[in-house]
């Protein structure tokens, strides 16, 4: 969730981590503070969609927590979804910020 929220912030400002400096840090921080609920909500919705797709099951309560944890430990979700720029552009809606 932190990765997704941070990546949203970087996308909104169209910067990379090395481009964060003392010059833009306060602007980034203030934007985050004002929009963190919406950013977290976007990440939460996307993560639920990821899990439903990954496990091919719309009812997340039917999926054992250990099974979900294993998918994260194997890094499958990061590679298949979060690091995939095509997936990111299609599924992380940042227009409402």
List the helices and strands and how they pair.
Layout: H1 2-13, H2 25-54, H3 65-73, H4 76-82, H5 85-91
Structural account:
The chain has helices at 2-13, 25-54, 65-73, 76-82, 85-91. The protein is elongated, with a radius of gyration of 15 Å. The two termini are 18 Å apart. Helix 1 crosses helix 2 (25-54). It has 5 helices and no strands. It is 67% helix and 0% strand. By secondary structure, it is mostly helical.
Task: Give a summary of the structure in a few sentences.
By secondary structure, this protein is mainly α. It is built from five helices and no strands.
Which oligomeric form is depicted? single chain
Helical fraction equals 55-70%
User: Roughly how many Å is the radius of gyration?
Assistant: 15 Å
The count of strands amounts to 0
Quick check: average pLDDT?
Answer: 88
